[in-house]
Design a protein that fits this description.
Elements (H helix, E strand, L loop, with lengths): L4 H9 L6 H11 L5 E2 L1 H10 L6 H13 L4 E6 L2 E5 L5 E6 L4 E6 L23 E4 L5
Parallel strand pairs: 4-6
Antiparallel strand pairs: 1-3, 2-3, 4-5
Helix pairs in contact: 3-4
């Protein structure tokens, strides 16, 4: 169980029960560098690593991880969401030709003027997605 200790600790700290499927999916996402995954790409990765899990379970797990603060959901359009393991403040380039999502450090975008939020609300976070066409990465 030693190789799973960091993953186990992370799930416990987030208040999530470490089921076999959560552990396996968390291991795929959180070991190594930060990554952007879709439910479909994570499901394919799980199958490649011989993790038996349904696509519905992958969707549910991604949303549970997001609610627990382990992931950040980046909505590209009504049909496509990415889940980012980097939950710090930052923005994204989206390569429309390939579907690649790439981080932009938050200090590279300067917001000079924002509208006032509606009464009774506050701005929680600002997400900027810059869509790129032409050359593919």
């Amino acid at each position: 169980m030693r190789p799973f200790r960091p993953i186990l600790d992370r799930l416990h700290q987030a208040g999530l029960r470490p089921t076999r499927q959560r552990m396996a999916l968390a291991k795929l996402m959180f070991e190594g560098r930060d990554c952007h995954v879709t439910a479909e790409s994570l499901h394919a990765q799980a199958i490649t690593h011989r993790v038996r899990v349904s696509l519905a379970t992958v969707y549910n797990t991604l949303h549970q991880f997001t609610s627990a603060g382990l992931l950040r959901e980046i909505v590209i359009d009504a049909a496509r969401s990415y889940f980012d393991t980097n939950t710090s403040d930052h923005h994204h380039f989206y390569w429309e030709g390939t579907g690649l999502l790439e981080d932009i450090p938050s200090d590279q975008i300067i917001m000079e003027k924002l509208p006032s939020p509606p009464p009774g609300t506050t701005i929680k976070r600002i997400d900027v997605v810059i869509r790129l066409a032409g050359c593919t990465k």
